[in-house]
Amino acid sequence: MFLVFPNPQVPPDTPDLAHAQTLSQDYALAYYEAIDPLNEKDTLDKWKAANGFGSGTGIEVSAVFGDIRDLGYGRKMTARRDPARKTIAFLVENYLVSPGGVYGYTPESLDAALASDTRWRIQYNAIEYSLGPNAQPGDVPFAKFYNFDPVSGQRRLTVDIDGRGQKAMPAVCFSCHGGRADALERNASGKLFFGHPLFASANGDAQARLQPFEVGNFDFSKVTGHTRADYEAALKLMNRFVLCSYPVPAGGPNNCPDEPVFNHPAKIEEWQGGAANLIRNAYGGDNLPNDTYVDTYIPSSWANGNPNVYRSVIAKSCRACHMLRDNGRDGDSSGFPPNPPHVDFDNYQQFVDKYAKLTRHYLFDLGNMPLAKIVYDNFWQSDGPQLLAQFLEPLTGSIARDASGKPVQPGRPVADPGPLTRTVLPGWVPLRAVQTFNDAYSWSVIQAPAGVAPQSVPIQDADKPQARFNATVGIYTVQLVASRAGVQSAPQTVTVVVKDSIPGLLDQNTIGLANIKAIMADNCISCHSASQLAPNSPEPLPPVDFADDVGLYERIRSRINFTDIATSRLLLKPADLVAHGGGLIFDASLPPGDQSRANYDNFINWIANGAPQ
After folding, report:
1. Which tens digits make up the pLDDT trace of 506-527?
2. In whole angstroms, how large is the CA radius of gyration of the chain?
3. For residues 78 and 90, is the Cβ–Cβ distance under 8 A?
4. What separation in angstroms does the CA of 348 have from each of 310, 319, 583?
5. Domain check: are 373 and 432 in the same one?
6. What is the mean pLDDT of residues 264-271?
7. Contact between residue 370 and residue 362 where contact means Cβ atoms under 8 Å apart
8. Domain range for residue 81?
9. Of 21, 574, 604, 605, which residue is 20 to 30 A from 41 by alpha carbon distance?
């Protein structure tokens, strides 16, 4: 499914999208309650009035264009910046004409937008950059996302963006606007609510951003008054509005020189506004001296590393969403800025070191990237897969190819037993496969300790994605084969080392939240605690507090991906397998059975067993 976060927050016992929290109406209700607690913007007319549309104040500008690359709509966009209200707002009418019922961009959608043909208007989307409810001195504006019914104007909880079913707000927007799709938090009275990272100031601030207008990816009418030349100035002004919403990193140029009320310095913890580089490059540098948008942007590290992969793959299929992601804290353990963010893919060496393996996993195995359907289709219809595979294979190993040597588009059965090579104590050992495109599973023990016949080892639910086997002391090799429509995958194995005892290793069948909390107290809370830091401390706040007992289970569970546990932040971050401000905490490269990886194995065992409280 497209426009769904790789971690959609599913429960451990039913890890399918039908039960994903981020796709539920409860998620949308909690979000709107956070950003609009009094329902003052629950209709299109109320939202427009609150943001001053048609009021004659501020600056208001419009453009009509076709969105070829991303969502395929004809778009009638109106933007306004209002210093008196301290708001920047964008309202877009989306039109989609699909001849033959095939989703994708067509010039007819642009024509419908130009004519405001209500037969094809499928939604109103709105983004508002403003202060949060009950803002306090020192708070900064943040981006808020709304969707309104194209007929009634009523605010909607879900939206069908790409003809592939309803998805809940706001995660469907955050997927390409840099926002965090964390699980809902729980307060002291037990109510779930939409929270915020520690370094933000208001509930609902998920650190989402405004997208630059990449004009070269738009289609325009040839009708006088609606050509690209006619709209170039309006789109440049919209890009100025976008730039005004970005934080300014230390020593960086002023993002909003004509309206200083919008300028705010980037906190050391937050996203450092790297997408501003794209806008400045497209218009000739600081102050945007050029009238016409020309995209020649390539970061210097990629220009020196692999410019072809950047231009043909990153810029076309990854950059639009990734450039708005990450935060300033996710440098390496040697410090924070000037260490840049990582997952924005702006740094060649950081991509190679931290994200090559995940990129291969998401694009070539799971098929959940690129995240938008049109971008995904265009990627697989281009030479991008071949270029990327050639680049990744020396770093990550071979990638499945067809008889002609081309990378195989995802859809084949893949046996992926996750990060379950580990150490356990005697007893039942949980197994958990990544489900991907598979419809059948087969677990088997193919190697057991001396004197134990592998076929005699008891396995429960051996034909299901979640299974378990009963182990005595020794070393086991467990094999997984997956199938789809009768076609089998290549087998994959995990090694499980069973010991009577090992210092620090807990029973995989009884480990609970209290044990995980104790491990975190020794290894994580020195950084992951708001209370540990003095007011105005120069030490940056992390996104999440693991010291506060209220809602702790929800915050930890939010960092577990039960659709693919190997990609859980609770495992990746402390093992420094992706960028982590705290550096290496648990060394996952040590062999199973090594005492020094006991806490990492405790985390794996707890997650594999469903992360019980």
Report:
1. 999 999 999 999 999 999 988 8
2. 25
3. yes
4. 9, 13, 19
5. no
6. 86
7. no
8. 17-214
9. 21
